[in-house]
Amino acid sequence: MGGAKLLQIITAADEDVVKRLLEVYRESMDDLAGNFESPAEMEWAYGAFLREFVRRPGQLLLVEQGQGHWGSALRAVEVQTGQWFLEAVETNPRDRGKGWGKALLIHTVQELERRGAWELFSLIHPDNGPSIAAHEAAGFSATERDPVNGWGEREDKCVLYALCPVARRERTSPCT
Prior knowledge:
seven-stranded mixed sheet
């Protein structure tokens, strides 16, 4: 994976955190830019969203840090006790292909297992090979379940990938 990587749980979204996450999420933010009057307005709105997100119980903002910068990030939302939806799993464009996403997912699984997770799930577009590979390397499997996100909304263009830590540990069938 090239260099030591460490999971960090973000508990406050100050200006530095917002700036660093904007770097990780730059491509997604560029896609959303047309919805705002200016880049400054978009950054302000994103900062406000993050400050609220990290304050809520059952919501975690996780980043993979190494060598002084953040390479990957995701948001985890506890849908019900022990069931976590992972969203916005992204890697900084300059860090792609270096194991950042895989490390983030593996470390996130370990952290959520410590918190009693019985299932983790994520929605992935079938054309997103790197995300599929990172999720599979962390133990996730494609399911036949409806592609419904953590808020109950269908995302028909995606496939639901899931991991059940207990089943994996006991070597029984994966989540389906």
